[in-house]
Amino acid sequence: MNKLFSMFAISIVLACSQTIYAGLKITPIQLYISDIKKQRSATVTLDYNESDQPKIFEVSAVKWAQNAEGEDVLEPDTSVVINPKNFVLQPNSKQIVRVGFTQMQPQKKEETWRIIFNEIAPTVKESKVNFLFNISMPLFVGIQEKVKLNFNPIYNGSQLSLNVKNDTNTHVQIKKITILDDNKKEIAVTTDMKYLLNNQQQNFNFGEIKLGDFHKYKLIIETDRSELPMEFNLSG
Of 141, 173, 188, which closes a domain? Predict the structure, then answer.
């Protein structure tokens, strides 16, 4: 008798949550190697509970860049050393994965990769539905410069968008942008989380909203680079 076996792939780009799905937790959600002379590797921990089935993972790395439109560009890269590259994660267990380099020269700007945890389908033994994970984790290598952003509010008809430019050689992840008026009243907000790699820019849409003089409004921005929100003038 043929066995019925259904698989659903779940692609996850780690953003702000450590718990992925059904008891699988991964920490940290970002990897940093700030000084390649003193630190050549970083570690990831996968913690697996709430299931009686093992998971098989294969780990790889891709170089991560962004084009002029802010779209991610990923290319295979063998310079990143991963140990182990393949492993079986048993129920109620942990797996530590080390990511790093054997040789690398200090860079003038931050270099970026994506570490991909790709779950492999198990051998079919019975009729069931399986969810396979494809987890993408950022790796940042290089000195972390102070955040410096430039803003340009743009109207397309009645639709307001905000162009945000990263004016440093270090990434920043925008988590939330709030527009306040001069009475500190919330006018609009977006939680569209996006990465801006070094010297890149992204557009954030606020929908249909009417503002007066841009100089009268403030931006409150939450990022991955600061525990506290940062305040800027909407006019730039």
Answer: 141
